[in-house]
Amino acid sequence: MEALFDTPRLAPTGADITAAGPHGHRRPRILIAQDGFAGKRRAIQRLRQEGYEVELATSGIEVMNAVRDRDFDLVLMDVELPDLNGVIAARTIRTNWKEHAPHIVGRSRSPFPEDYQTLKEEGEMDACVSSKLSDQELLALIADCLAQNTRVA
């Protein structure tokens, strides 16, 4: 098995930073972290239509390895991931990559709106929203997060 987050990736150097932005690539890169099949293809297609580069992880371990190995601008994190839930994965990303961590938007199937604030705080996420959020609302939230130089309060 591949080692899990041995060392954090380094921040981009001056040579890596282009006019495209601090992450050194032209289109923002999003990691969708979701285990179930429902909606993944549609979400990937929709985000690509909006000009984002999109990758997929289906477990918490895959999320950690992807963030360790590649530079993402945002992780769209299902909080109910198998083997390492999204809250723990988000907190671990914040701990290991600190200010170089990608934005993290948690998604939950919880029917209780008060759960979202708790999950956001526990996972140190930029936001946590319902997995039933409309495409337009989710795209607006992603754009807001990416427009920030630091995590959303």
Automatic annotation (TrEMBL):
The modification 4-aspartylphosphate is found at residue 78. The keyword Phosphoprotein applies. The keyword Cytoplasm does not apply. Residues 29-146 form the Response regulatory domain. Keywords: Phosphoprotein, Two-component regulatory system. One of its GO terms (biological process) is phosphorelay signal transduction system. It comes from the Bacteria. PANTHER family: HYBRID SIGNAL TRANSDUCTION HISTIDINE KINASE J. This is Response regulator. It comes from Ruficoccus amylovorans.
